[in-house]
Design a protein that fits this description.
Layout: H1 2-27, E1 58-59, E2 62-65, E3 67-68, H2 77-81, E4 83-84, H3 86-98, E5 102-104, H4 106-114, E6 124-131, H5 134-146, E7 152-155, H6 168-176, E8 180-183, H7 197-215, E9 221-223, H8 231-240, E10 244-248, E11 257-258, E12 269-273, H9 278-284
Parallel strand pairs: 2-6, 2-12, 3-4, 5-6, 6-7, 7-8, 9-10, 10-12
Antiparallel strand pairs: 1-11
Helix pairs in contact: 3-5, 7-8
């Protein structure tokens, strides 16, 4: 059984890399977000990890979606694995509502972790959506509104307005309806593999400035492309003004306990990849 779990986790990781790896190539040289002059220069010294004044250990599933769309005949098995059909997503949201779960924003989770007095429902769940695909606006957004749920959408800015991706106008509509629009970098690179600090800072701080210029609000949360990060990435996120960040952990047996003994832990919060398997979805949200 342990071998089967390890194999499945490895499959999920490989699938994410294969499915979304082309994003870095396609958008690395795209001019969409790179033309903005940054208002905030790269600091000479970056902040270090410090103990948090207070923290609350919580068990909150942070679910990660990529695409909510009907299956097509030309979809590969890997694409189908990470595409949740609208009817399945509808069933997932209905299950949450009928079984006493409360969907909260990522911001609410961070507030609850750093302040024991912050309110937190009995069975909280965070729903996150990566990249900014247009099918999320077309299929996920209406269902979130239907169930009065919030969603946190992590976008990489060079893709916005391109084919198959949302527009800034659509993002504004979702933001006005209570959805959170957060940062997923400018061009979706492997941040931990970047050695040029200026380019890394542009991906982190630049994406924040671009989103603020279009939506009137600077994002507070960051999602690492491919879930990959290192200590330098965390230090730059803190310097840029982000409060927390989400990584990925593949396919755990259950939602992990989230703790914040130091400020750095808030930038390592684990997201759980959601597939089209409804039974697996139910097992992952047990708190």
């Amino acid at each position: 059984m342990a071998w089967a779990r390890k194999t499945f986790i490895g499959f999920l990781v490989a699938a994410v890399v294969l499915l979304f790896g082309w994003l870095a190539w396609r958008y690395a040289a795209s001019p969409g977000g790179g033309e903005l002059l940054l208002a905030k220069p790269l600091p000479a010294e970056l902040p270090e990890a410090t103990p948090t004044a207070s923290f609350r250990p919580v068990r909150v599933p942070i679910l990660v979606y990529h695409s909510i769309a009907p299956y097509r005949t030309d979809m590969s098995r890997l694409v189908k694995e990470f595409t949740v059909p609208p009817e399945t997503f509808d069933a997932q949201l209905r299950y949450l509502q009928q079984n006493g779960y409360t969907v909260i924003s990522f911001e609410s989770l961070v507030n609850a972790m750093i302040s024991p007095s912050a309110p937190l429902p009995e069975k909280p769940v965070v729903l996150t959506f990566d990249d900014g695909w247009e099918d999320l606006y077309r299929h996920a957004f209406p269902l979130l509104v239907k169930y009065h749920d919030s969603g946190t959408f992590f976008i990489f800015t060079n893709a916005i307005g391109d084919r198959d991706f949302m527009t800034w106008s659509q993002l504004k509509t979702m933001q006005a309806a209570g959805m959170d629009i957060e940062s997923h970098s400018i061009s979706h690179p492997f941040l931990s593999a970047m050695t040029d600090k200026a380019k890394l800072w542009k991906e982190i701080e630049g994406s924040r400035e671009i989103i603020a210029s279009h939506l009137g609000r600077a994002p507070d949360i960051f999602a690492y492309p491919y879930g990959s990060y290192n200590g330098l990435d965390i230090a730059m996120l803190k310097a840029a003004g982000y409060r927390a960040a989400r990584a990925d952990i593949g396919a755990p047996a259950a939602a992990p306990v989230l703790v914040a003994n130091t400020t750095d832990e808030l930038y390592k919060l684990p997201g759980i990849e959601v597939t089209n398997n409804f039974a697996r979805f139910v097992s992952l949200i047990k708190v």
